[in-house]
Specification:
By secondary structure, the protein is of the alpha+beta class. It is about 40% helix and about 25% strand. The radius of gyration is 12 Å and the shape is globular. The mean pLDDT is about 95.
Length: about 100
């Protein structure tokens, strides 16, 4: 899984990673917001979801302590990170301004 993850984040376009857990209420609230962002930005961004309970090695590598945690990568480098809930406007702004 780690090598596949590295391939995904080494994209030229921004890659937003949503570290979430199925038992997390705020994560469930963010799910439709992420879908709207994906629909509106289409090919400008890749959005992937990582279940921290099923992918503990990746969560540990990026020191994810709380969920949801969003990390934005560009060319394989972490360019922004935030934990907690975000509005659709804030998320789009972060993605478009990396």
């Amino acid at each position: 899984m780690m090598s596949k993850f590295s391939e995904i984040i080494n994209d030229k376009k921004p890659v937003l990673v949503d570290f979430f857990a199925t038992w997390c209420g705020p994560c469930q609230t963010m799910s439709p917001i992420l879908k709207q962002v994906k629909d509106e930005l289409a090919d400008e961004v890749k959005i992937i979801k990582i279940d921290v309970d099923k992918n503990q090695a990746i969560a540990q590598k990026f020191q994810v302590r709380g969920v949801p945690t969003f990390i934005l990568f560009k060319d394989g480098k972490q360019v922004w990170r935030q934990s907690g809930m975000l509005s659709k406007t804030d998320l789009k702004h972060k993605i478009l301004n990396v």
